[in-house]
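Re-running the complex after MR caught last week's input typo. The corrected sequence lines follow. Everything else is unchanged.
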Amino acid sequence: MSTSQGPKDPSPNKRLRSKRAWRRNMEEIMLASTKHDEWSQKEPKDRDYANEVERRFFTAVEMPAAPSNELKELYRVFGKYIQNPR
Amino acid sequence: MSSENIFKTPVDLKLLSIKPLDPKTDRAAFCCGTTRIDNFCRNNAKKQHGRNLVRVYDAHLDGTLVGFYYLVASSNPPDMVSEEAAEKFGRVKAAPCVYLGMVGTHAEYQRNGIGRVLMLDAMTITLKVAEYVGLYALTLEAINQEKADLYRRWGFQYFIDGELKMFMPIGTIRQLLTP
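Corrected-run output:
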């Protein structure tokens, strides 16, 4: 019967070095991040907005509405005349 | 037939050709009935296009200029939101958008759908840009409330209620134009 051994448990020193590297990496990431990064990581609905215009704009851009029926109809009728690719 | 259509020339849209502005095109005869748009088309379009300030796209029928629109990159909104919002637009400090400056159709050829084709063409170009560069929305300023109401039905949204500046998210345009 063959026995397979899993990966060897790293030595305590190695674990410590790995943990330090992870922390250093995290610190670099945090230093590199900006207010915008923190803010934009939140879901649009969970963010603080300065006013209604801002809320409306960001929410619409990040959670875009499906094309309206009138826009779809416009495209159905006139879309075939679009001149792309040029 | 309504009285508005009596003097209009029927157009076969299949013959419509939309191309970037050609400096050789005669623009002097263009007249859509709105002075601001006519003046731009006749006096400024060629110059601004040539200087890379805007990109003008002309619609031709049998060599006649029957319509045009122009696009330009714009930074929106900061003037429409609070100062704190600038931090929220990331490193560019603004929301990158494409601004649809004007859409005009020669008066003789109006009510044939040329303006609608130009609007869809502008959306297509905007979406192409968005495939290569981060872009939030296509923006415009309606020339009057009647046009704003039409754009609203197509899915443009007001930045501020009661004003005519509007935007359509790129995501909506992508859903429309991507099969």
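None of the earlier attempt is carried over here. The mean pLDDT of chain B is 88. Residues 3-177 of chain B form a domain with the Aminopeptidase fold (CATH 3.40.630.30).
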